[in-house]
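User: quick one, fold this
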Amino acid sequence: MAYQFIDTQELDGVLIITMDDPPTRNAIGDEMAEEINQEFDRLEASSDLRAVVLTGRDPSFCSGANVKRMDDANRARADEPPLPGDRTAWDVLDEEWKELGEADAASSEEIDGVRFVPLRLHRLQKPSIAAVNGYAMGLGMGIALSCDIRIASENARMSETFIRRGLIPADGSCWQLPRMIGLGNTMLLQYTGKVMDAEECLRLGIVNEVVEHGDLMEHTLGLASQIANGPTYSMALIKKLVQRSLHVDFAESLRLAGPAQSIARRTQDHKEGVRAFVEKRQPRYQGR
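Assistant:
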């Protein structure tokens, strides 16, 4: 299918999505978000596609949300009343949260289209890898963080740039970053909007590897192919268990792992893995 803002390819069971809007350095708007979500739908429905690589057209991974559209939106809200001066920021936010109410699960109706992309990545049951080829700014960084694995080119630059526009990171990174790099580092990056090079991202644990720019896609696709040809049903179980384990103690995580392991033992891939070991050959996994 032909798209306006992304390019797609398939290679050895891997879906490759390239954000492709050079005039905006691959800024993500509702149209691009919709196209990406359509490809995620196709990925999840396909038995042949078993992993996804997300990257951007050089020289940028994703420059974030479209700032020009922000300016248009601000002009459209010119008559909006000012914030109350007799209450603190926390007071005002608590009032807004009370109006928001409780929700069983966040959905696309509750989260606008561009901010739903990180959540969609977080919920994908097939492995995802970000090949960060250049600037990943604001929401672009949030999209990369939402992938399971991040491989960075030496040209990669990442920033929680929201604060430079007087905004907050509303892309899920307030949940992701503290778990990756700790509270102090998170607050530093989100208070300053500091632009980090690839080596600093590696030092902090934001990316898994840094490679030469010319080797980025070959290296990433090699890893993606290895993963896609593995027991991806069990990988889905791993992802769910890891996410649940973030919110429970060690003993509860072990308890939750029991049913997950019971399911894994029922997969064809488990039986194939054991049989291949006994027969001294390479296993042929099918993702089921």
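User: anything notable?
Assistant: The chain has a mean pLDDT of 93.
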